[in-house]
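Duplicate of #3305? Posting structure anyway:
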């Protein structure tokens, strides 16, 4: 086992050890191995599956799923890729980690059951922190410095459902933003979104962008499962992303995306009730300002008038709360503006 690099840092080395050489040519299937002593396994380890496919010289792409453990398009598409991708088909290197927050993925939950860690709010992590912090630190100090292109496949998870879109961020460096936007377009999801991240602190996205990488994320479906359609979008997008990176020599698949804008907070409806949710618009359906998006019923009484939530701008319904019950503070609906 060997660490891919010795990062210049005052921090102690990562306790995470790859079980395969990440720089070896050919194909390797192994783990990121993290010691974790628990009631169930005294001298145990957490083993995060990974595959590295490498051939010749060329860029490196890092592909991840299950940054949030209840999102499944990434894990499915990346397990398929790990079984199928042949070294002779590529120039460069592809690092495939189907379940980045592996303990959360094993539990079918957004955050880790070990430390409640939300992988996308915990960067840069710590080598001497909690399990989730240790995994984040390994990505921050050992993996990100080694790679050129980063694709992190998200979906809505158990509590949200989205139109399938790829996303890039509005960045201070316009040249880097242009590179990220080009990679987002190459992914060719049915929809694409350029986001100004309001809550960027601790995100994997931010960690990758801060060190100058080409970063693309997605929201594909949701509801805590994956569909035939959304898995197909993920597979096609990965294929196109690797072609765009210059790693895979093949023909891109799919067509142009519809660009969506989420200009301000009017896009997001937040619940102020606890109750039974009736969505009044289907995902992707047109919405006009003032139109009722959802009703929330106080199910503790009959004969009570429901609270209505209306659109604050014209657009389409791009995201919705997924479970049938909703709480105060939950996101009910996301309206986006097509251009
Ligand atoms: Ca997510």
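Output from current build:
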């Amino acid at each position: 086992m060997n660490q891919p690099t010795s990062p210049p840092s005052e921090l102690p080395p990562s306790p995470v050890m790859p079980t395969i050489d990440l720089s070896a040519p050919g194909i390797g299937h192994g783990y990121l191995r993290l010691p974790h002593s628990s009631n169930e396994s005294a001298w145990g380890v957490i083993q995060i599956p990974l595959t590295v496919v490498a051939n010749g010289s060329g860029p490196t792409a890092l592909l991840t799923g299950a940054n949030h453990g209840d999102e499944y398009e990434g894990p499915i598409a990346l397990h398929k890729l790990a079984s199928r991708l042949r070294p002779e088909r590529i120039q460069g290197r592809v690092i495939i980690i189907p379940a980045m927050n592996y303990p959360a993925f094993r539990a079918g939950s957004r955050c880790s059951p070990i430390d409640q860690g939300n992988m996308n709010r915990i960067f840069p992590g710590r080598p001497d922190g909690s399990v989730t912090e240790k995994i984040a630190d390994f990505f921050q100090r050992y993996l990100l410095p080694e790679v050129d292109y980063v694709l992190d496949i998200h979906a809505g998870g158990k509590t949200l459902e989205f139109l399938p879109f790829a996303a890039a961020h509005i960045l201070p460096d316009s040249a880097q933003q242009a590179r990220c936007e080009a990679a987002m377009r190459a992914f060719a999801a049915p929809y694409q979104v350029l986001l100004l991240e309001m809550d960027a602190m601790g995100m994997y996205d931010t960690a990758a962008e801060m060190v100058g990488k080409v970063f693309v994320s997605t929201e594909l479906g949701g509801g805590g499962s994956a569909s035939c359609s959304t898995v197909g979008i993920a597979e096609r997008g990965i294929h196109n992303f690797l072609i765009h990176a210059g790693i895979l020599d093949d023909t891109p698949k799919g067509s142009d995306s519809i660009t969506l804008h989420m200009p301000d907070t009017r896009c997001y409806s937040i619940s102020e009730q606890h109750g039974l949710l009736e969505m009044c618009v289907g995902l992707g359906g047109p919405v006009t300002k003032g139109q009722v998006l959802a009703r929330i019923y106080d199910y503790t009484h009959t004969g009570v008038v429901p609270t209505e939530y209306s659109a604050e701008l014209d657009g389409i319904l791009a995201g919705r709360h997924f479970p049938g019950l909703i709480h105060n503070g939950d996101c009910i609906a996301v309206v986006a503006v097509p251009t």
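Confirmed duplicate; merging threads. Helices lie at 73-84, 102-107, 131-143, 174-187, 204-210, 228-244. The mean pLDDT is 96.
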